[in-house]
Predict the 3D structure of the following.
Amino acid sequence: EADIYQTPRYLVIGTGKKITLECSQTMGHDKMYWYQQDPGMELHLIHYSYGVNSTEKGDLSSESTVSRIRTEHFPLTLESARPSHTSQYLCASSDGTSNQPQHFGDGTRLSIL
Amino acid sequence: QKEVEQNSGPLSVPEGAIASLNCTYSDRGSQSFFWYRQYSGKSPELIMSIYSNGDKEDGRFTAQLNKASQYVSLLIRDSQPSDSATYLCAVSQRGGGADGLTFGKGTHLIIQP
């Protein structure tokens, strides 16, 4: 069973605030991902990482940034939140070998007022 | 562009019947295929993986892969109301890599009691 944790589960915050969404996994997976998903809509990859000190932008342009200083930790930061950032953010990880499935955390539902 | 196509539905199936979900993909070099189940407001959960042509069975679920036709399907036998969810097809492209997993938009399945 996948052990990947996201905090907070829910966040309601005002415009202009700096936000960091936490994601940690205990499986030693090299690859980690952030997806954005609106209700009833498809997943959009916004960031991914091959390993420590590796970060790449995904298919969907995002104003957020990520860092990967430790294997187990892949936080996502929004420097100045806007209502357009309201969405669900899903973190996932997978083993470093090719063609392995991704395992998802429970997600953070973010609402910017 | 690598594509994974699914009928968005909703697909309505009576309780106890077989639900059949289909997925086609564009990259002939794709190597690994996954089915995820996503309940409303929740994160995707891996339910099946298949890597070679043919059928793979796990409980009430059967995944079918036909690489020549670039087609993968999921059959759910003895459908239950708890199977009502969105089912995401995911395909790992040639060479893998952190961005190598492409998700379809999902099929919304409704099991009618």
